[in-house]
Each structure stands twice: as structure tokens, then as C-alpha cells.
Design brief:
The termini are far apart. Helices cover 92% and strands 0% of the residues. It is an all-alpha fold. It is built from 3 helices and no strands.
Length: 104
């Protein structure tokens, strides 16, 4: 009779222990999942990097466009005899050169 009691007790306890096994497994794998999340948060994917680069290029192009329009206007005014416009045109040209050099 004792032989039957031990296996029967083990069979009865198995459903209760399955939750413990799952919990133990999740505790064991938790550091790996946390480390994986940390790597995801700290690294930039290629697509994220491409998007950031694209935004920076569009912003630079917009700034170059504004400076170019201002430069052309100030150049016209400079040709009409305005010394202040000549100074502004030189400043605009220098700013455009600076932006172009940063892109390289």
C-alpha cells in the first residue's frame, strides 16, 4: 500500500508544481529579457539612423535655401549701392559655406 501512496502523492502534486516550474523559468530568463530590452533602448537601428540623417539633411537644405534667398536679395541691394546689404550678403555667403562644410 505504501508503494501506491508515494506515486499517487507525486501525481497529485504535479499540477500544483507546474506553476512553480513556470515561475522559476521566468525568474531564470528575466535577466536575459531585461538585458535584451536595455540593448534595444541603447542602440539605434539602421532605419532609425537613416530617418535621423534624413531629417538633418532636410533641415540643412531648408536653412541653405533661406540663406540663398537672403544672399540673392542682399546681392541685388548691394549692386544698387547699399553697403549694409553688401555686408549682409557676405555674412549670408559665409554661413552657406559653413553649412556646406559641415555636411562633408
Amino acid at each position: 500500500m505504501k508503494r501506491l501512496v508515494v506515486p499517487f502523492a507525486v501525481l497529485m502534486a504535479l499540477p500544483m508544481l507546474s506553476g512553480c516550474v513556470r515561475t522559476a523559468a521566468s525568474i531564470v530568463t528575466a535577466p536575459v529579457r531585461v538585458a535584451g530590452k536595455a540593448v534595444d533602448w541603447t542602440t539605434t537601428s539602421q532605419s532609425e539612423s537613416d530617418e535621423k540623417r534624413g531629417r538633418a539633411l532636410r533641415k540643412r537644405d531648408e536653412e541653405l535655401g533661406k540663406l540663398n534667398r537672403s544672399y540673392e536679395k542682399n546681392t541685388r541691394d548691394c549692386q544698387r549701392g547699399s553697403e549694409a546689404a553688401c555686408d549682409r550678403a557676405r555674412n549670408d555667403y559665409g554661413a552657406m559655406q559653413d553649412l556646406r562644410e559641415k555636411a562633408i
